[in-house]
Amino acid sequence: xxxxFLILFFTCIAGTxxxxxxxxxxxxxxxxxxxxxEEKWSExxxxxxxxxxxxxxxxxxxxxTSFMYCIIGFEQKTESSKQEWYEKATYLGKKAITQHPxxxxxxxxxxVSLGRMTEFGSNxxxxxxxxxxxxxxxxxxxxxxxxxxxxxxxxxxxxxIASFNFFERTMITAIxxxxxxxxxxxxxxxxxxxxxxxxxxxxxxxxxxxxxLARDEESDxxxxxxxxxxxxxxxxxxxxxxxxxxxxEKLLKEI
Length: 255
Description:
73% of the residues lie in helices and 0% in strands. It has 255 residues and is an all-alpha fold. It folds into two domains: 3-9 and 21-198, Serine Threonine Protein Phosphatase 5, Tetratricopeptide repeat, CATH 1.25.40; 203-255, no CATH class. The chain is globular. The two termini are 21 Å apart.
């Protein structure tokens, strides 16, 4: 489930001049980064919250802490508790893009947090966030076209909008104006782009299969099966990989 959040964890550190920070701070950052790689989310969050106290405007600390809140928030037992964590993630993500508008990671983190709030929110929240999520994901790709996670977000966005009924679409148009896109075809295209960039990330395959099933045209069921079979053949290297493979196997049996 969390593999999508790791997309940017292993990229080069951008937008931060490490010559301007102390050795102990750099070591603390490396410790937090290592904990992320080991999927020790709670411990990583403690480290990055401490780093934010030292420098609350550092874009690396902001977007990474935002991610930690999203990841741990997903593990919460109640919807209200999840939303509390996602609200914190959104606050940090928004702060990151406000202070660092040219940082792709910041916009991506903000888009992820908004997506999480929307996923578990009411229809009203989904409608209110719809346009903002799309614009943040698109801006991420404008700044860094190789961000697979942004394509993933757009893939889910188009599928979600395509599933809205007439009343919900009317509300969106009334509040925000017409939203371009929102089709299963666009959803499929975006997941395919995510797979091209991250062919070893099975969560993209799973969501692509979901979009084929949602479109439900001729051969779409077989297309979904084909992608799920490919996903189950990907080597498992982490807990996320194992969980994603299980989801693909389960959906494959259900088709």
